Amino acid sequence: MKNNENLSTGPAVQRDGFRSVLGAFTATLGSAVGLGNIWKFPYLTGVNGGAAFVFAYLICVAVVGLPLLVAEHVIGRRMRLNAVHAYENVVPNERAWSLIGFAGVLAAVLIMAFYTDIAGWVFAYVAKSVAAFATGSGPLTKESFASLAGGSLEPLAWQAGVIALVTVVIAAGVSRGIEKVTKFLMPVLLGLLILCDIRALSLPGAFKGVSFLFAPDFSKITGGVILAALGLSFFKLSLGMGTMTTYGSYLPDGTRIVPNATRVALADTVVSLLAGLAVFPAVFAFGFEPSAGPSLLFISVPMIFSKMPLGGLFTSLFFILAAIAAVGAMISLIEVPTAWMSEKGRIKRPVAAVISGAVMLLLGVLATLSQGPILSNVKIFGKNFFDVFDFASSNVLLPIGGVAIAIVAGWRLARKEFIAELDKGYGKTPWYSKTIYAFIKFVAPVLIVVILLNSLGLLKL
Ligand code: PFF
Question: Can you tell me which atom of ligand 1 is nearest the CA of 243?
């Protein structure tokens, strides 16, 4: 089914979509690039031993991430529907696959709850680092971070502001909102990142950081390292929860799915590596530890950058680029429930966007307050709200969603139909269509099941 006019779930809706092949690319890249690159990738690389982790991550992106991204784009564009309705209708008489879409909506809300908390800190750090640079006051310290993250009113205000911002973009629509904003933001982000790289790489002793990132010590590769890399590749490419299916539904017919997805995966990886190149040379040049963990971005980076010439300026630039990255990713997270609600037919898009933002804020308040004295004692299975939302989405919902999507694409959808979607934009079937199909059918589901079992503690690698 190409259009949604004979769909029982709602009346025909005139659909918006990405207007150009370039806009489709920047929007998809905007979803992939986010705090995952600037915050998660460097800290996971730091705690998992450097280049060996990077190597494992690159393999995971190539053999699982890219095929799954292609699968989601194929299903999305084939159905031209939001995630819930796309999976409900993709296999005739098997409506239960809509559960993938519902799980995706739930995952989007859970991820946004903690993602907007971190994004709020990033925006706060933009303001604080710019103020510190302008007034010439000292660098942001461990204490500055503890008082922000452990507070209540301040982080909540930043979080609410961030959610309001992305709600406005989403309410504006797909082509006028998402496409326009990401087309402008992606090049700015890249420019800022390269500036930070040049600064960090020109420090004396920067080379140690470069070899930490690129010279693998393969003895550091363990089952746990591979699993962390696989999980990151899911989170990074926004997979397993219908985000890329929804974006696939906006892809123009002229977009060649495999090359577009390959460019997105490559560009996203380059941004992660560039973020690593801004952080680790500076970490090593000043004799800091690379394995600080999640606080690397908020405690170590400002401390380290403050030690280099023009450090205040580069700290501000670094947080500005992190904020830009977070915006594109959050836009895609809020789009999943917004598209679903507005295509059900009864709710207008701006209203759907506001409802999605409000629900995300409600759960977000729990995540944010669980970092401070008010809710830090409330534990579910030994974890606070922030960690539960992170665990339930990244370690449970995304991998289950990923396996289900690979099964639908590889085993339930006719191969002919799948390949036909890949062939759009070409005169004939390109050589790689069949290869990528085999990866979706066999390699991706098996590997994902392994991560899933491990993250649930059912398989010890
Ligand atoms: N890919 C984003 C990042 O790396 O920051 C995070 C993300 C966005 C995950 C959208 C899931 C999603 F649907």
Answer: 13
Residue 174 · residue 18 · CB < 8 Å: yes
Is residue 13 domain-resident? Answer: no
Q: In which residue are the tokens 């296999």 written?
A: 91
Q: Is residue 180 part of a domain?
A: yes
User: Which string of b and e fits 177-191 if b means at least 16 CB within 10 Å?
Assistant: bbbbbbbebbeebbe
What is the extent of the structural domain holding 249?
21-455
Q: Is 241 in the pocket of ligand 1 (CB under 6 A)?
A: yes
Exposure class string for 327-355: b at 16+ Cβ within 10 A, else e: bbbbbbbbbbbbbbbbbbeebebbebbbb
| Residue 101 resides in a domain | yes
Please report, as a single letter, which amino acid is at residue 322: A
371 in any annotated domain: yes
How far apart are the C-alpha atoms of 345 and 8, rounded to whole Å? 11
Find the CATH number of the domain harbouring 370: 1.20.1740.10
Q: What is the pLDDT along the chain (461 residues), one digit of tens a residue?
A: 344 433 434 334 467 899 899 999 999 999 999 999 999 999 999 999 999 999 999 999 999 999 999 999 999 999 999 999 999 999 999 999 999 999 999 999 999 999 999 999 999 999 999 999 999 887 888 899 999 999 999 999 999 999 999 999 999 888 888 888 888 888 888 999 999 999 899 999 999 999 999 999 999 988 778 878 888 899 999 999 999 999 999 999 999 999 999 999 999 999 999 999 999 999 999 888 898 877 888 988 888 888 888 889 999 999 999 999 999 999 999 999 999 999 987 899 999 999 999 999 999 999 999 998 888 888 998 899 998 998 888 778 888 899 999 999 999 999 999 999 998 888 778 889 989 999 999 999 998 898 778 767 787 76
Mutational pocket test of ligand 1: of 28, 29, 31, the residue with most ligand atoms within 8 Å of the beta carbon:
31
CA 329 to ligand 1: nearest atom: 8
Considering only CA atoms, which residue is closest to atom 11 of ligand 1? 238
